[in-house]
Design goal:
This protein is 2% helix and 70% strand. The protein is mostly beta strands and 325 residues long.
Length: 325
C-alpha cells in the first residue's frame, strides 16, 4: 500500500495454531504456537510470508492475588503492524521479543495494587524503521467504591534505546474512572499527563474514553477515543490520537454481522493519518467450523501530500477444537 504503485493481488493465508494450558496445584502454565503462512498471486506486489508466534506463560495463585511471567516472540508484516502504529508501511518484517512480569494483590475487599515490569526488543527487515529496545515499569492502585463506580491511579515509566540515535524516557501518570451508568451502558474514562525527555522534551496530556452500550439482546455498540504516547519504529516515542467504533448484530444463533471504523493520527517523523472502515458477516457451520466474509477499506496520508488507499475482500474458514489432542 504505497502511493507510487497500485495493483490487485490475491492472497492465500493459513494460520495453524495450538495452545496448551496446564494446571498444577496453584500454578498455571500456558504455551501457544502459531504460524502465519501466506502466498500471493503477485510476489512483486505482496511477497509470500511465514510468520511464527510463540508465547510462554506461568502464573501462580497466592492467598491475596497472583504473580506471573510471560514471554512472547512474534514476526509480522509491516503492512499490518506499521499501518496501525506509525503509518510507515512497506513489504518487510517486524520481529518482536518481550519478557514481562506482574504482581497483583488485594489489600482489602475493595482495594487492589498491581506492579509490573517488561523488556521488549524490536527489529525490522525492510522499510525505513529503526530497531530499538524498551525497558518499562508500571504501578497502579485501584479501588471499588460500589457496584457502579471504580477508580484507578496509575504510574508508568519507559526507557527507549534505539540502535542508532539518542535514547528517550517517557513518564506517564493517569487517573481512571469506570462507571456503570445503566444496566446497558458502561463507560471508562482516563486522564493523565505524559513527560518525554531525551530525543525531544515534551509535556502533554493523555487520556481516553470508552463507551459500551448493549442496545438489545442481539446487538451492541462501542466507541473509543484515545490519546497516548508509545514506543515506535520512528526512532523514539510517538504521540497518537485515535478513535474507533463498532456495531455488532446477531441475526440468528449462527449468523452475525458487524460494522467498524477507526481513525488514527500519528505525530512522528513524518506525521501520518490512517483510516480503516469495514463490514463482516460470520456464520457458524457447526461446533468447530466458522465461515467469515469481510470487506475493508484502508486509507493513509502523510506529510508532503502522499496518499494511498486499498480495498480488501476476504473469505475466511476457521476450524477450532478445544480437545483435538
Amino acid at each position: 500500500m504505497t502511493p507510487k504503485a497500485s495493483g490487485g493481488v490475491w492472497r492465500f493465508n493459513t494460520v495453524p495454531s495450538y495452545q496448551i494450558t496446564g494446571i498444577l496445584d496453584r500454578d498455571q502454565f500456558n504455551m501457544g504456537l502459531s504460524l502465519n503462512l501466506e502466498r500471493s498471486s503477485d510476489e512483486a506486489v505482496s511477497a509470500g510470508r511465514e510468520d511464527p508466534t510463540l508465547s510462554l506463560g506461568w502464573r501462580r495463585a497466592m492467598p491475596t492475588g497472583d504473580f506471573g511471567i510471560a514471554m512472547l516472540h512474534e514476526e509480522a508484516s509491516l503492512r499490518v503492524t506499521e499501518f496501525a502504529d506509525t503509518g510507515l508501511v512497506g513489504d518487510g518484517t517486524r520481529s518482536s521479543s518481550s519478557l514481562s512480569a506482574d504482581w497483583n494483590s488485594q489489600l482489602s475487599d475493595r482495594l487492589g495494587v498491581t506492579l509490573g515490569t517488561s523488556y521488549k526488543d524490536v527489529s525490522y527487515q525492510g522499510g525505513s524503521n529503526t530497531d530499538y529496545a524498551t525497558l518499562a515499569a508500571n504501578a497502579s492502585l485501584s479501588r471499588i467504591w460500589s457496584d457502579r463506580i471504580e477508580t484507578k491511579l496509575s504510574l508508568s515509566s519507559s526507557r527507549y534505546v534505539p540502535d542508532a540515535g539518542q535514547s528517550s524516557t517517557s513518564l506517564d501518570t493517569s487517573f481512571g474512572l469506570k462507571l456503570k451508568l445503566t444496566e446497558r451502558l458502561d463507560t471508562d474514562l482516563r486522564l493523565g499527563v505524559n513527560r518525554t525527555s531525551g530525543r525531544s522534551d515534551n509535556t502533554g496530556w493523555t487520556g481516553g474514553l470508552a463507551l459500551n452500550y448493549v442496545t438489545s439482546e442481539r446487538s451492541a455498540a462501542s466507541f473509543r477515543l484515545d490519546r497516548a504516547v508509545s514506543d515506535s519504529g520512528a526512532g523514539g516515542f510517538a504521540e497518537s490520537t485515535q478513535a474507533s467504533g463498532q456495531l455488532t448484530y446477531a441475526i440468528s444463533n449462527l449468523l452475525s454481522a458487524s460494522v467498524d471504523v477507526s481513525w488514527r493520527e500519528n505525530r512522528s517523523i513524518p506525521n501520518t493519518s490512517t483510516l480503516q472502515a469495514g463490514a463482516s458477516l460470520s456464520r457458524g457451520l457447526d461446533d468447530h467450523w466458522l465461515l467469515r466474509m469481510s470487506y475493508q477499506y484502508r486509507y493513509r496520508e502523510q506529510d508532503g501530500g502522499d496518499e494511498a488507499d486499498a480495498h480488501l475482500l476476504s473469505l475466511t474458514l476457521n476450524y477450532s477444537h478445544p480437545e483435538l489432542f
